[in-house]
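Minutes, project huddle
Topic: does the predicted pose make sense with glutamic acid bound?
PN asked that the exact inputs be recorded in the minutes so nobody has to dig through chat later. Recorded below.
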Amino acid sequence: MSTNSSIVKSTSLKKGKEEQSPLKEFQEILQEAIQILRYPSEVYDFLKNPMRFLEVNIPIKMDDGTTKTFIGYRAQHNDATGPTKGGIRFHPDVTPEEVKALAGWMSLKCGITDLPYGGAKGGIVCDPRQMSMDELERLSRGYVRAVSQVVGPTKDIPAPDMYTNSQIMAWMLDEYDHIREFDSPGFITGKPLLLGGSKGRETATSLGVFYTIQLISQLQKLPMEGMRVIIQGFGNVGSYLAQYLHENGAKVVGISDVVGAVYNPEGLDIPYLLDRRDSFGVVSNLFRNSISNQELLEKECDILIPAAIGGVITKFNAERLQCKIVVEAANGPTTKEAIQILNEKKIMVVPDILANSGGVIVSYFEWCQNNQGYYWTEKEVEERLKEKMTTSFLKVFNTAKKYRVNMKIAAYIEGIQKIAEASRLRGWVKF
Ligand code: GLU
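Predicted holo structure (tokens), as shared on screen:
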């Protein structure tokens, strides 16, 4: 039931024993981008935090008859360009700082991919693996009741994120429809097809990452055939991605899950692993000689794809990486300091807000289809996704060249301009 394989830790950027907040990382890179764009500091002051942040208490009846209070959050970064958009994660480590950073990253993703949205993100502090389906349903409905005033199809549109899926979206939609007393499929994306979901939404993030790798393969003259790839995470994103890469001739030499990792320089049997994977993406316990997640990151390969949690490539291991390119499929897997080290080692880092934007792109397609009441074929969805991924990638790639900055900073430069301009037009900031 996950969109990500690992439930051990989320997006707190681990720095040995101390932790750097993801919000701080977002703010530091944002400031750099804003300075390069020569916007005044008032623009930074306005955009460094979300415009709205809601914290709610959700009392839920548990199966054993007790009542438990869960904490939920919703951050809305900026709505100058349209309603805000972003997923809801269920995870024991969710913090306000993390949700605020993730909402900011969603604004940047929507800016880069030219979607008429600003960013948002929600989260509930819970461990879905310890909860029954009935408890999860009550929690999902309780969250919608608690935030119903600030969300809606033209206000703020939720979607799946870490450990939430189409079933949870279905319960949330049903609760919202009850509150509003009318059918409003555009309130939430990532829904089941029967309730107005879009074809291709389930695989959208992985397919977007795959298209990104295809582009890199052309631009860097690194053929897909025989390309050695390591994927950290075998959840929704990692597993579909492994399948696409395998089917297109790449050699997946390493994968990992929450338990451990497997590596074989000759290539792994991906169809077998996909077949044996459980619903939480666990598969490595099939192997006697499995290695740790951290060890896997340092193995030799052409492309390393962190596709699970945040903060896994830090200043403590960046020096030891042996890949040519890092493609960030997870949100926030590489710290700012690690990116600097990797740049010095001439390792290119393709940023999360570009590489994993396929999810929100197809969410946008889903919302458009809901608004029109007219549904597209899978082929149409995939073609439009490819077009958006290609345009966005080339924009960021060229911006990096133009300003002589890395792709992370270039992605922030591309991502922030529309929101800054729209905020200026609305009279919220002056420049
Ligand atoms: N949770 C996904 C992300 O981080 C998708 C968000 C959406 O579809 O709105 O991009």
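Observations noted during the meeting:
- Residues 85-87, 109, 159, 161, 189, 331, 356, 359-360, 363 surround glutamic acid (CB under 6 Å).
- The chain has a mean pLDDT of 93.
No decisions taken; revisit at the next huddle.
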